[in-house]
Amino acid sequence: MSLSMRYDGVEKVFDPQGRNPVRALNGVSFTIEPGELFCLLGPSGCGKTTLLRCTAGLESITGGRIFYGDRDVTTIPPFRRNIGMVFQSFALYPHMNVFENVAYGLRVRKVPEDTIERKVSAIMDLVGLPDVLKRNPSPTALSGGQKQRVAVARALVYDPEILLLDEPLANLDAKLRRRMRAEIRRIQKVTKITTIFVTHDQEEAMAIGDRLAVLRDGNVEQLGTSSEVYSAPENAFVANFIGKMNFFHGRAVESATADEQVRIGIAGGLVLEPQERAIKTKHGLRAGEPVLVGVRPEHLMLRSEGSNGGFAGTVNVIQNLGQFIRYEVHVDPRLAPDALEIDMHQALDGCTEGDHVSVHIDQAQALVFSPETGWDISQDEVG
Ligand SMILES: Nc1ncnc2c1ncn2[C@@H]1O[C@H](COP(=O)(O)OP(=O)(O)OP(=O)(O)O)[C@@H](O)[C@H]1O
Ligand SMILES: [Mg+2]
Q1: Beta 279-280 vs 367-369: how paired, if at all?
Q2: What is the pLDDT of residue 87?
Q3: Cβ(49) – ligand 1 distance below 6 Å
Q4: Is 188 helix (H, G, I), strand (E, B) or coil?
Q5: 241 and 226 part of one domain
Q6: How far apart are CA 334 and CA 379, in angstroms?
Q7: Which residues surround ligand 2, an ion (CB under 5 A)?
Q8: Are the CB atoms for 7 and 29 separated by under 8 Å?
Q9: Which end of the chain, N or C, is surrounded by fewer C-beta atoms within 10 Å?
Q10: What does the pLDDT read at residue 374?
Q11: Are 294 and 279 in contact (CB under 8 A)?
């Protein structure tokens, strides 16, 4: 039976009595469903490893509670929690062969020898390394991907109730990483062990997780499926962290309550009419209040210079990425703080780098954030 997991107001302050206390987790509350593959995502230092270590009991928490299923494990020591963990800088024991590396957790638990042999063999089949087990070399003779699989096998072999993986693919090259993340998802679906997978790579989190949580400064900023978080980010930080988001400076044309439809003016006299649900503000908007308008690269279009309903830009770089063509376009900095990234399925006829173009926003897809929800970009005045 897979277990659920629940964090209830979890706080972690390192060195609370010291001169420089560090607040690493700031009242984290959420639930992971039984058998779920859950991703923790966030920038370096946001508290991902700390949350995993608290989950495993390797760090005590300074506030809140942690539950495995209905069991409050807050004060239970790590060796009495049945957890499998692959650490951020995992190390296999170089002086032991592969079999002994994987068997280690079973030996510690005083499992009989014939059971150990059966379990190690079964788990090495599961991670796709039966041949490596036959050769049984030292881990130093393994490739990066093989080492990674052995580390996962070592964490899984004693049937943990919960599996914690801290950036397990960080040391692999891009291609192997992709293969391994599919592999980890496959293994997790076979074992159905409730799993937390930590990464700071948003593509990896979206690809691997059933659901994900975005962390910032010890707070959960948003939690949901990949597509929920991608298409309906709750604030500008999440919008910018999950996939590329282009930002424009805008102003509310009229006053509105939160979640009410409101027209947004951007530089050059353009007025956008985003959908009602696209407005992400906590307190509504006053007429004239500055906002950030977020638009994904696939929701911007290029047309020839001077087209109606667009604004002027200059193409800086064109990259043909196979599935689409990516244009980097410079616009007036009063309009957008950074160069725009625009993905088009078809090339704009005759357009080359340095050309002047017209940029168009798919208004229905534009998201509106009040600047306080998010991310610190310079607030230039709208012209
Ligand atoms: N043992 C410790 N003592 C004091 N501060 C710590 C300790 N461990 C972590 N921290 C601090 O807590 C915060 C969160 O660290 P954590 O290792 O959880 O980040 P992370 O999200 O895993 O980052 P990364 O992506 O770089 O691995 C950081 O500010 C870090 O400096
Ligand atoms: Mg970490």
Answers
A1: parallel
A2: 85
A3: yes
A4: helix
A5: no
A6: 9
A7: 48-49, 88
A8: yes
A9: N
A10: 55
A11: no
Tens digit of pLDDT for each residue in 208-235? 999 999 999 999 999 999 999 998 898 8
Tens digits of per-residue pLDDT, 228-281? 999 889 888 899 888 889 999 999 998 888 767 888 888 777 888 877 667 777
**Tally of domains in the chain:** 2
How far does residue 23's CA lie from ligand 1's centre (Å)? 10
Residue 53 Cβ inside 6 Å of ligand 1? The answer reads no
56-79 confidence digits (pLDDT tens) = 999 999 999 999 999 999 999 998
* Residue 373 pLDDT grade (very low, low, confident, very high; cuts 50, 70, 90): low
CA-proximal residue: ligand 1, atom 8 (nearest): 50
Given a contact cutoff of 8 angstroms between Cβ atoms, the answer to whether 152 and 102 are in contact is no
Q: For residue 55, which ligand has an atom nearest its CA?
A: 1
| Beta-sheet pairing, 83-86 with 162-166 | parallel
Token pair of 313, please? 């830009």
Q: Is residue 192 situated within a structural domain?
A: yes
In this structure, are 278 and 181 located in the same domain? no
- Ligand 2 centre from 52 Cα, in Å? 9
51 and 187 assigned to the same domain: yes
Domain extent for 340: 236-373
Find the CATH number of the domain harbouring 244: 2.40.50.140
| Nearest-CA residue for atom 19 of ligand 1 | 45
- Give the pLDDT of residue 372: 64
Mutate to test the pocket of ligand 1, among 11, 12, 14, 166 (most ligand atoms within 8 A of CB): 14
